[in-house]
């Protein structure tokens, strides 16, 4: 509960802190360090283990931060750390259309630098306009580092040898450079005076605790300075919260793990919860909190409380919660009408900004927030979405994908969800491709690779079936037969001459069809095609040598206008240079008569 005194019915709530970063860069270790030190620092036991979040009161932060945080400078009650790190949970935890976390720690391994999930996290932070600090973690992993547990970082940097310090700084400057590439001006936190305009970088080690005092001091200072206004909430008003997780709890049935970020919730309150279909209207049967560590008995880890005030984590037991969704809003009705609150919940669910198109892929995700994050990344990759929904991949999704004509849209992208067995079989039967991953950028990468492979296959197919440009000359003294069919010796001047094509010649600006290329024979053997510079005997149905065609004539393969368009457009780069040149000459002939031919 907030510590400050309510003067006018409002109170200052705890800022909510999220931890993001690439896998293995130290998010969990950092949270463990904060929680572990908080428990040690707080021997009286004011640290409350919360559902899904850990509340660290200001006096405990001050103690952990050594001399860096003077509690009299602050009136915010502390910090509430969300226990599940990673941008998946960050995206899941929304409030009123924005991010639930008020502030974030972006963890970057100083020895490993920016990685794909670092970039992804930055995109999400930028999109949600969430202020953040960078924890440049694992400074102790730099060779030769000398540690002093839990010490502020500047003194530790000074205590290293020149070589170690310069190795650490190299990593730090790389991170600052990468932040700049991502559009953020950043610097060592002690050089930053305006944290709104600049990102502070805190060198640290979650393992040894070095720099942790600095990190807490920066978080606290930033919150006090820039978030204080937003932290003013009416703690007597009806609660607003977000579902973290829907879980089964023995003795209580389906329960909601939730973070309350506004107002208060009491046992017995009527609540509205966002769900897969219609919002659920129900009544709170019990509010549960973990028992303090010392009191936990294995069969009874929770105790019931009468009331929870923002910002806090709580487990809510109530009837009929089966359809509730992670990431969905929770509202206490209070003295408003159920209809108005239901409408508000419905509106918030709809505000999940997934834009769908007439054609595109089907996407499924485990929570609203992750659905939105996936949709955002797809939009950036210019991949259209036809249908987006929270939940496992079900037969209905396969039906939707099955209505698509383009091969690349016959796809379902599933993020962090299961594929129901019958859907998998159904998808296989109908040639629908399923992509499953629990890392967004990998999911998109796999899909893009697939699209590229089908585009290549399609292009090959088109190249097979399209009329290829060719011009060839009838050689002097090489008439083997005058007609029915005419058989003459030719040399290809440019392009690829293939059997079965229609042949034209240019008389002035008009193309005249002279016949049909029946066969190509090279030293008595039938061949399918002849390339530039090659000679062979060809038989042409239609003309008579000496009348429609003459020795020395240049003849062309007739290109239908539709084919010309494709050749001149999407296939131009695929054509060998001689074919491209021949195509241009052919187009020039046509366009001297009709400038828009084949366009
Ligand atoms: P997460 O995937 O981001 O949650 O990363 P973890 O917290 O699980 O850390 C990944 C690995 O890095 C673990 O083996 C940690 O012990 C190690 N690690 C995390 N922080 C530090 C640190 O500050 N220094 C060192 N040397 N190792 C660390």
Automatic annotation (TrEMBL):
The keyword Nucleotide-binding applies. GO terms for cellular component: cytoplasm. PROSITE patterns: G_TR_2 (PS51722). Residues 12-227 form the Tr-type G domain. Keywords: GTP-binding, Initiation factor, Nucleotide-binding, Protein biosynthesis. CDD domains: aeIF5B_II, IF2_aeIF5B_IV, IF2_eIF5B. GO terms for molecular function: GTP binding; GTPase activity; translation initiation factor activity. GTP binds at residues 21-28, 83-87, 137-140. The keyword GTP-binding applies. Belongs to the TRAFAC class translation factor GTPase superfamily. Classic translation factor GTPase family. IF-2 subfamily. Function in general translation initiation by promoting the binding of the formylmethionine-tRNA to ribosomes. Seems to function along with eIF-2. NCBIfam families: aIF-2, PRK04004.1, small_GTP. This is Probable translation initiation factor IF-2. The gene is infB.
């Amino acid at each position: 509960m907030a510590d400050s005194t309510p003067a006018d019915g409002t109170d200052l709530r705890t800022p909510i802190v999220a931890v993001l970063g690439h896998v293995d860069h130290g998010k969990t270790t950092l949270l463990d360090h904060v929680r572990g030190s908080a428990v040690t620092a707080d021997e009286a036991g004011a640290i409350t283990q919360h559902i899904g979040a850990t509340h660290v009161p200001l006096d405990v932060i001050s103690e952990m931060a050594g001399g860096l945080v003077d509690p009299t400078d602050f009136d915010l009650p502390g910090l509430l750390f969300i226990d599940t790190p990673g941008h998946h949970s960050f995206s899941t935890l929304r409030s009123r259309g924005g991010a639930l976390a008020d502030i974030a720690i972006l963890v970057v391994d100083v020895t490993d630098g920016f990685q794909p999930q670092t970039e992804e996290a930055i995109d999400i932070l930028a999109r949600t306009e969430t202020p953040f600090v960078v924890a440049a973690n694992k400074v102790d992993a730099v060779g030769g580092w000398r540690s002093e547990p839990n010490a502020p970082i500047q003194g530790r940097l000074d205590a290293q040898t020149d070589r170690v310090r310069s190795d650490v700084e190299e990593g730090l400057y790389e991170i600052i450079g990468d932040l700049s590439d991502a559009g953020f001006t950043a610097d060592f936190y002690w050089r930053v005076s305006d944290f709104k305009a600049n990102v502070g970088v805190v060198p640290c080690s979650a393992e040894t605790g070095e720099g942790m005092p600095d990190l807490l001091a920066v978080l606290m200072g930033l919150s006090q300075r820039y978030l204080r206004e937003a932290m003013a909430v009416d703690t007597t008003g009806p609660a607003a919260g977000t579902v973290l997780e829907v879980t089964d709890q023995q003795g209580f049935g389906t329960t909601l793990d939730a973070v309350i970020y506004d107002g208060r919730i009491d046992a017995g309150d009527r609540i509205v919860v966002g769900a897969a279909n219609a919002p659920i209207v129900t009544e709170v049967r019990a509010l549960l909190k973990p028992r303090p560590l010392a009191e936990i008995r294995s069969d009874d880890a929770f105790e019931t409380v009468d009331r929870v005030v923002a910002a806090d984590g709580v487990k809510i037991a109530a009837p009929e919660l089966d359809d509730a969704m992670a990431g969905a809003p929770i509202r206490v009705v209070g003295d408003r009408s159920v209809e108005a609150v239901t409408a508000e919940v419905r509106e918030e669910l709809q505000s999940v900004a997934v834009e769908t198109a007439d054609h595109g892929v089907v996407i499924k995700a485990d929570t609203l927030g992750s659905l939105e994050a996936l949709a955002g990344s797809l939009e950036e990759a210019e991949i259209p979405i036809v249908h987006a929904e929270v939940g496992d991949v079900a037969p209905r999704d396969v039906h939707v994908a099955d209505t698509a004509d383009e091969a690349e849209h016959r796809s379902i992208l599933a993020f962090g969800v299961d594929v129901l067995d019958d859907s998998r079989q159904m998808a296989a039967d109908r040639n629908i491709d399923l992509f499953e991953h629990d890392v967004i950028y990998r999911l998109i990468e796999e899909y893009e690779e697939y699209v590229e492979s089908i585009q290549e296959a399609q292009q090959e197919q088109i190249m097979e079936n399209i009329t290829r440009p060719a011009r060839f000359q009838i050689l002097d003294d090489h008439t083997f037969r005058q007609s029915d069919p005419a058989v003459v010796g030719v040399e290809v001047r440019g392009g690829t001459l293939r059997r079965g094509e229609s042949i034209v010649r240019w008389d002035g600006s008009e193309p005249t069809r002279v016949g049909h290329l029946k066969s190509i024979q090279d030293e008595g053997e039938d061949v399918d095609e002849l390339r530039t510079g090659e000679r062979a005997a060809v038989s042409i149905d239609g003309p008579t040598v000496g009348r429609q065609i003459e020795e020395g004539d240049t003849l062309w393969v007739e290109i239908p206008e539709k084919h010309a368009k494709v050749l001149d457009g999407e296939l131009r780069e695929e054509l060998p240079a001689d074919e491209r040149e021949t195509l241009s000459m052919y187009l020039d002939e046509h366009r001297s008569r009709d400038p828009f031919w084949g366009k």
